[in-house]
Fold each of these.
Amino acid sequence: MKRGFTLIELIAVIVILAIIALITTASVMGLFNKTKSSLYETQVEIVESAAKKWAIANNGFLPTDGSEYALQLSKLVTDGYLDDGDIVDPRTEKEMNGYVNIIYDNSINQYKIEFINLSNAGLTKEYVLNNVSLVTEGAGLYDDKNKTGRYYFRGKNPNNYIKFNNEIWRIISIESNGTLKIIKETGFNHVFDEIGSRSIENANSACAPYTMGCPIWAKNGTTILKNSELLTYLNGSYYDKLNKYKDKIVTGQWCYRHISTGGTSASDFLEDEFFDFCGTTVTNGKVGLVSIKEIKDASLGTCGYMKNCQNNYLNNGTEYWTLNYSYDALIMDSNGDIISMNASNTAVNARPVLYLKSDLELSGKGTGTNPFIIK
């Protein structure tokens, strides 16, 4: 006599089939979304390639002073470099929301092309502001009164920890465009410039007075024809080692202006206007160093002219290079003082600084035990 299924057995079979269906659906959807993301990345490459061709053909009116040029996608279509279908986002089947940023990098004598996605612009900034309260005294996040929409951290231990490249970094500032400027918490030994690397013999005339290595960050195309060894390393070998994290970084501007130590008063040094004009001492790149101005801004209490910047999270008890120079390279020492140092010194640390994209999704609270983490 044949035996039928009991009700419990039928329910069990139905549940198992439902679970299998859910797993299969999730797998298929995951693969589908991954394919769409891959198609989007290819689309971005097509747009950037077209923009590069456009820039070559139109370089006569593009800026060469380090300022940015925003090239609209519609312009690429109108000028015949792209078709209408080339600017459709395969993930949404709508027009891509963004533009191509074109900026001249005088350190390599060419334009850098990068598509800026505006779909989630401000997402990073919004998350940090929602998790770190603004303060007007003590350690914390401050509103920059001189630049609308910009914020910076001050004090000995504010909640500005962020995990990047599986390492702990600190957020220096939230820029007006929504990017995060971060600095590696611990550094590594690296010379700023070797003795004779950029001497008068190889046409770097501005470096000739410096007999112990040249302290000038980047070439300017006239009196400095080579970049510093530290710039070359950070934007070359070091940047390449970031692997999968490189797509989280955007090109930034780095002001490495000279600071006169003769006759400049403490009050002048502390004025924001002191660093407003960079002139030709500005370059673009993925990785840079912290500036004296940023060290000053991060300090609470007394931080006179190059002295006693101790109440400051940037003072990590080591000596490290800054972007600026005087009669030699300028470093922050373990006491919180800004002092001159031979650019060829092998005992000074390099602490990389970079800008993170404005559309990153974050988790965490920014504390030492629960840092911000990029999802």
Amino acid sequence: MILDSVFTYCRKYIDYIKVLVCLIFALNLLRLSYKWTNHNFIGGEDENLVLNLNIFLNDFFEIESEEDFVMDQAVFINISNDKELINVKDNFGIPIGNRAITDRQKLIALIEAMQDKQKIAFFDIFFDPAHESAHDSLLNSKLTASKKIIIPSIIRNDSLIEPKFQGLIGLSSYDKTLFSNKFVKYTYLQNDSIPSVALLMHHLINDETIEKKGNYYFTGDTLCLNSLIIDHPIKSIHKYDNDLNYVYSELGADILDVMTPDEIQALVAEKIVLVGDYDDADFHQTIYGSIPGVIINYNSFLALKQHKHLVQKSQIYFLFMVYFLISMSILFDWDLYIRQKINHKLRKFKIFNYLNSSALLFNNVFIAILRNYIEIGVLVSGLSLLFYYLYGQYIEILGTSFIIGSVIVIRNYFTEKHAH
């Protein structure tokens, strides 16, 4: 009797219950979408969307490149041709030969000449603890004394490796996609505690950072993303521009050997100084081609500077309403009604009739399920495209599509079972 009363009550208010379920589903999908977007994993469909969307927006809307503007804010210094030889020993301390490392004396000379007149400097050089130079002690003291020079730590074999020297240290790490092994996504706070080079630059220049509070990331009191797909304002860099002016300078030949300390200070004054390998040793594959690691870090800093990581309230409301309407369409069968209307229009196409006949051949199970997932994948991809156009951020596609597609498959299963 009690169960019958409960079922009778539920049937009476079934529509209200469905709306409540849709609200709960939309809120949880919103939470999962945020979590997945912050994950450094990225699938091939996200990678292709980023590349094709960027090309489409630039061509269709004739968006002006930011490259010239952001390059004017920085000084690019190449150290790939400035080397010194050091003795190398094996694990037992036995000498095994020599190795070329970045010339410590020239780095010291650059630091002394700049006199911290730069806005910030990033030396994209990993100072390996195993490498010993006669000038290590002096270089360490210069780096420690400066409050405007960042040096990188790295991740090797899933372990954090700190540099040999002290000073301002940020993590330099490049997450790759699962399918094409290309860099697409940059994580600012690694393991929720280790600041990246880009985040440290942003903190020192703009006095902002990212902190994790509970399950969410914040800049100040504003919700933000910790992991961003980088669009790369600077997609390539060459020694000379079209007018044969230097784009990047050699540390020794173009700066230390020919410029006075006053000229070097004037060159770097209130600029971001990016010291790294611009030739070939530190290039990383991206969806736009090979880009030097120092430029990837700079591009990632620019995304923070432009506040592309911040999540506005309008973004939350927009996504919640979209997810709520999608869940409503599933539970109230609006999507089935729309599909019937579309199918009626598509019957005149032979390919559509062929797919329908194939579905019938396989008892309308496998192909029907596959079609559901494909349709939702296209829908979420379109949603991600619209979201990027409105807010400059991407929505995670794979997980979101799988959840929505699975709900539709389950709904269809019980609908057909009930009909039989």
Amino acid sequence: MTGGYLTQYIDTQASVPMAPEESLHIPRSERSRKVLVTGASGFLGGSLIRRLLDQGAEVTGLCRRPQPELEAAGVTILSIDLANSKAVRNACRGMDTVFHTAAKVGIWGRYQDFHDANVVGTQSIINGCRDFEVEKLVYTSTPSVVFNGEDHSGANESTPLGKKIPCHYPTTKAIAESAVRAANGEPPGNLKTVSLRPHLIWGPGDPNLIPRVLERGRKGRLRIVGDGVNRVDLSYIDNVVDAHLHAESALDNEAHNPGGNAYFISNDEPVALWPWINELLENNGIPPIEKRISLSKARRLGASLEFIWRLFRIGSEPPMTRFVASELAKDHWFDISAAKRDLNFQPNVSMEEGMKRLLQYSSTASSNT
């Protein structure tokens, strides 16, 4: 249940068509801006693409599955494995901006798989942006890069990256974020980069976070971990899309230019996690969570399950890990003052309004099935 787990990993390969050479020399002011969005089949990537289309951008999307709706809207869809360095690099050719939202997400799996997608894939994007003189790169990171097993209560960007994080996803995302930040200003095109750390993206159409909570609630598999009063940030999908577009624009700023920086993104309305989950469950006709487990017990359970899963090479995710135990019991809310100042970002959809929209969406979806 950590930020950034909603993007999709691209895992099919294809050759990438080259942009016509002459199109690379048309001044940007005389044509629509060309944008590449990785993770196009994901919740964030797809939402960002639809907003870019509304702005009149010429969009290319990378994803693992066909997207007939996006293709019908005029999006060029490419199927590329993030580990295919040459193809990923070439996909950046002719672009003005690259939004890199794709990642391998999850709490379990082989380190090499996470490294290939999140580290190698991101470096290939950086190489493509640099070699083809893409102007801007907006990278979707995760707040989990600062995980240290303790509370983050109003933490800001001065918080150091975590060390020895017991989860491959944030470990590899931290490496990738560092590479993106270091790439800012790299010649020959003096690439401008910015990294965003949205926390727990949710909203209508979310295929992971909300459905997973509801499914486990229906099966009675949820337990309150810790004292149940920990506060967390959540990020409504429209606000996260706004943040990415504001970040792209802000890279043109002279004052407070965000180039090379990373920013926490959220709704700026920390909620008590377990009461919020219980409200969500009750709104969907599911009994609230009453059973509890202490953080110390949850961590010991997680460590035991991790050992068993490794010993027997079980492919599925363990029901508990040390990382998840801490995430469910500790404060995780962040100071987004820097994003407000440098990116001109302001969450426009409140938590209350977001919940109303989610319930309306769920009601409409249920009536259509």
Amino acid sequence: MSVQELFRHEARRAEAGAINERRLATGRPGNHLPICLLAAVFLAAAVFLCAFDYKRKVRLEGLVISSTGISRLYAPGSGFIALGNLHEGQIVASGTVLGYLRSNKDVYESASMATADLVVKEKEAILQRDARRNTLQHESKMRSARAARQEAQEQLTVLKHQEEIAAVQLTATERLYQRFVDLHRDGFISMIQLEEKLSAVTEAKFKVQTLQAQEASAQKNLVDTDENLRNMEILRTVQDDDLGMRSRELERERSVQTNDRRFNLVAPVSGALSAVAVRNGQYLTEGSPILSIIPNNDPLTVTLFAPSEKAGLLRAGQRVVLRITAFPYEKFGFVNAVVREVATTPQAASDAAYEHAGSSGQTQVYRILVDADLQAFARKNSQIVLRPGLSLEGDIIVEKRRLIEWAFSALFKLLERA
């Protein structure tokens, strides 16, 4: 056996091993394409997870309402209602009497109430008579007092004038007396003439003193007259207060006797009537809703209603996307808004602007106030007419994070705990 035949098998195995090594180094023709595709897929997934965000949204129902809210009128008592010729959309002014509510006592105790009305009317007549009498007496006394004051003022003026004249006369008499004293000392007049001039000076002084006393008396009379006028004004005020108290007592008596049997229904604000829920002659219990009034010319705003299970993550400043139900967003678009305020306490769904808004069977809801530029939305299309009461939906973005954080959130939590 030759040497080649002896090592033929080992040579073949070595050759086969060299071929396999070249194949592993160069690869099979056409096998690199799937690897490239797989790498591209992994790279795209990584870019997608890192570049895009995950947004968690809360969808709520709400309403377009006026900024001052919708005023609702409730029955102030139990009884039968009588409304005027009212209809939906009718404009009413604040303070307008829309109707009245008559209680059971007005229906079943008309005879006794008629007697009570006669008693009350008699007391009203007495009260009016006393008021007229007090007015006449006060005016008469005031006229007399004013006349007395005017007379005292005139008398005081006259006395002052007379006193001035008497003072001038006294001065002249005293000067003349001094002249007579000089003449008597020179021997030109007698002692009798000097004594006559002294008597004239004494009389002039007495006259001045008398006028001064009369002037003081007139001044005191004037002060007393002014005091009397002030006392009469005070007395008039006291009488008016007494009449007012009697009038209030009479009103309370009427209220007690009639048990407030008739309640006037007055519009609290000016606006358009809405949700008229009753008809004439219907019996209502106290607190029953009667109608709503949408205020006129008030800016429109948006209110959302959040059930308790959706209110936990809501905060002021969160972005909101609003879709008004009456205007499909596919055609008219949507409204971008921002949460302005989140109520800290819930309210009954029946106490919201409309009972059906946002309740969805919930008994308690949180009111969410939203800042939205509704006027800009209305200017987009002439077909858009916004009015209070339009329902809408709002998506509030409560959480935003990268997709990679969301996909590997469990892994991140484990790493944080470790």
